[in-house]
Amino acid sequence: MKLILITLLCLAASTTATPLLGEKKCTWGPAYWCQHLWSARECGAIEHCAQRVWMLQETPQQEASDADSGCQMCEKMVRGVTVLLDNKSTKGEILKYMERACTGAQTAEGVRACKNAVDAFFPAILDFVAMEMDPMVICTAMKLCPSSNSSSEEVERLENTIEEVLVVKPLLQELAPSHVMSSADRDRREANAGSSR
């Protein structure tokens, strides 16, 4: 019993001391990076996501329920930024316009989310508008419109797979290596047993 406890403690210490492959979400690739601007910034991938994912993304279909959310307000705001850029407005004027536009969200939470996105990503939003990115795609990246793509489902699948492969299976193999074998190991063992007869 003491041997099992010591083994478990050693295993726990060794797994916390070294980072596991896939433990950091930024190693998961574009499915994680390009969910929205926050994950893109976390992984240093805003430019990649803008050029390789969001610019190529089809316009998300807006659901009837989105009409009541900040989604329509965001789309109108981004279209307004396009007009202001075309009219050679200053960045200061555009920022003031966007901050005022955020107050058009129907809930305090929507106003706060919009202002947070504008404060955090103002230069990137201007770049997206200048690139002629679809306003709905911009608003989805700002997390002001719901995502209609499957990237959030892909990230959930990745999280489950990473946990299973990197945490559960190694733990089982450490605790009972003779009982947890891959099918290839089992086939090899059977082949060796058959050839030795």
TrEMBL record:
Pfam families: SapA (PF02199), SapB_1 (PF05184), SapB_2 (PF03489)
Subcellular location: Secreted
Coiled-coil segments: none
Domain Saposin B-type: 67-149
Keyword vocabulary terms for this entry: Disulfide bond, Glycoprotein, Repeat, Secreted, Signal
Signal peptide location: 1-17
InterPro entries in the cross-refs: SAP_A, SapB_1, SapB_2, Saposin, Saposin-like, SaposinB_dom, Sphingo_Act-Surfact_Prot
Main location: secreted
SMART domains: SAPA (SM00162), SapB (SM00741)
Residue ranges occupied by any Saposin A-type domain in the UniProt entry: 19-59
Stated name of the protein: Proactivator polypeptide-like
Protein's organism: Priapulus caudatus (Priapulid worm)
Lineage, highest ranks first: Eukaryota, Metazoa, Ecdysozoa, Scalidophora, Priapulida
